[in-house]
Write a structure and sequence with these properties.
The protein has 19 helices and 9 strands. The protein is mainly alpha-helical and 519 residues long.
């Protein structure tokens, strides 16, 4: 299928001064939506006014930071007017020092979308041509190769965003159909002329929070799905452990008014088809905390997500470079909107709450595989019976791996935002570390998704064994549907077998959000 045909079948996200959502950036990152710059003449005139105002200041020998001065601590260095056109090129050139793994194509598209959103607010003094050039990259399927490391989160994501600036000008490398190609060749093949940056345009592209914000949009989406998935896993674990569904009673949760926690309890009641009756039937009166308190653990993230959304979307919809160009008031406003403190706080908080989900699942798995606590199921949930049972070990090693992934996730919960460093001759003497916090959060999400994949194997095995041990125990319909779906990917473990390929398949399902979970 031609790229033009693919573009036709995707929804369009229009960039202007209107408010964008997390979902807009996530869909662009995943290729489910394409960005388009508004054709509205009033919008385009508003963008042009900023660039025209800067041009007039230059003609009048006005002093503008980053236009007729050096950058950062070098703001006291005056740049002769003859050299002003070269300054943006030098800015992205000397910031070409990023290292670490490269952002994925989806992450880079999220970054491009976040930067386009900020510049479209009309307070950055850039030309319409610059915005159009970013859209051209999207339309041609070209994604800058962006190293993930090198930003302290103020003065914005300078080093990683320099790779976007360079690609717009036909320098460095892009991803095209999964292959790394020189940007000059890729632009030429796509019929795109390299951009010559106008005064301040290099600064406008780089001096902002687009990397941390784009990554935060993706992190929020994954975290929101995990709240539902971990709830479903908990319901399956409760059934497999022959647990007490009255722990999630509506009246019980009505007396503790955390809305997100109450939602989780309601989902568990739905999954377990709880009818409001306390039926002990010889069971232990109170389940252990990893089951009984699951709504309280998952609910922390569920209740925090609306705050995280507000912080991320406010940043996404901000003009966050410096200086801010007020074309209508004809003022150049020097400030610090490149500081990513709100994203840093959201990402530090999110990774803490997500890691607690990994810990919750790890504790549930420990109960499920231990014959002392799993209400009559085989040790290690081994499905083998008869003479071959002694040589089969079930999920013993999987439990060890899940514990390792959990430990690594918990280790990464140290807040990045408290590790501010003084940089750049003490000009950038208090920085946000927002990009490091966002990268940490994505790693914690990755590890927690791995733990969730392990638990999907475990609860699928546990439910299968519970029904073998207690054939009269009815499986609630919502859980039966989930077990049927899992059964398409994972067979019960009888004879020992490697599980890594099945775990990777389940990870794909998790990251594709393949299962519809609750309304």
């Amino acid at each position: 299928m031609l790229l033009s045909d693919i573009n036709t079948h995707r929804r369009t996200v229009r960039f202007d001064r209107a408010r964008l959502t997390l979902e807009d950036i996530v869909d662009i990152a995943r290729g489910a939506a394409r960005p388009a710059l508004s054709e509205d003449p009033a919008f385009r005139a508003a963008i042009a006014r900023g660039a025209d105002f800067l041009d007039r200041l230059l003609r009048e020998d006005g002093v503008v930071y980053g236009v007729t001065t050096g950058y950062g601590d070098s703001c006291t260095v005056e740049v002769p007017l003859a050299l002003v056109p070269e300054l943006p090129h030098h800015l992205y050139t000397y910031h070409g020092c990023g290292l670490g793994v490269h952002l994925t194509a989806a992450q880079a598209r999220a970054v491009m979308g976040a930067r386009l959103a900020s510049l479209s607010k009309g307070y950055s003094g850039v030309s319409v041509e610059l915005l159009d050039q970013i859209v051209r990259l999207f339309d041609a399927g070209l994604v800058p190769v962006i190293p993930s490391e090198g930003s302290v989160g103020a003065s914005g994501d300078l080093t990683p965003l320099s790779y976007l600036a360079a690609v717009l000008c036909g320098e460095r490398e892009v991803l095209r159909d999964g292959a790394v190609v020189p940007a000059a060749q890729a632009l030429r093949d796509a019929g795109i002329a390299p951009l010559r940056l106008r005064p301040k345009e290099g600064l406008a592209i780089m001096n902002g929070t687009a990397v941390m914000t784009g990554l935060a949009c993706l992190a929020w989406d994954r975290a929101a799905y995990l709240t539902r998935l971990v709830t479903r896993i908990t319901a399956l674990a409760s059934f497999a452990l022959d647990g007490n569904d009255h722990h999630f009673d509506e009246t019980l949760f009505a007396v503790k008014p955390h809305a997100g926690m109450q939602d989780v309890a309601a989902w568990l009641r739905q999954d377990l088809e709880y009818g409001g009756q306390l039926e002990r039937n010889g069971k232990r009166l109170q389940d252990r905390y990893s089951i009984r308190c699951a709504p309280h653990v998952i609910g922390v993230l569920a209740d925090a997500l609306p705050f995280f959304r507000t912080a991320i979307e406010n940043e996404l919809n901000s003009a966050n470079d410096n200086p801010i160009i007020d074309a209508e008031g004809e003022r150049v406003l020097h400030g610090g909107h490149f500081y990513g403190g709100h994203i840093a706080f959201a990402m530090d908080g999110m990774k803490n709450a997500v890691a607690n989900l990994a810990d919750l699942l790890d504790r549930q798995m420990a109960l499920l595989v231990d014959a002392r606590y799993n209400a009559g199921l085989p040790a290690n949930l081994s499905g083998m019976q008869g003479e071959r049972a002694p040589i089969n070990h079930g999920l013993k090693a999987l439990q060890i791996s899940a514990s390792a992934w959990t430990a690594e996730a918990l280790k990464l919960t140290m807040p990045a935002s408290v590790f501010s460093r003084s940089t750049e001759c003490h000009n950038q003497d208090k920085v946000s570390m927002g990009t490091i916090a966002a990268r940490d959060c994505l790693r914690v999400l990755e590890l927690t998704e791995q733990v969730a994949a392990a638990l999907l194997v475990t609860v699928r095995q546990g439910v299968w064994l519970r029904r073998r041990v207690d054939p009269g125990k009815a499986l609630p319909a919502p859980l039966a549907r989930m077990v049927d779906l899992l059964g398409q990917d994972v067979a019960p473990v009888t004879e020992d077998r490697r599980l890594d390929s099945e775990l990777r398949l389940l990870l794909d399902r998790i990251r594709d959000q393949a299962w519809s979970l609750y309304a």
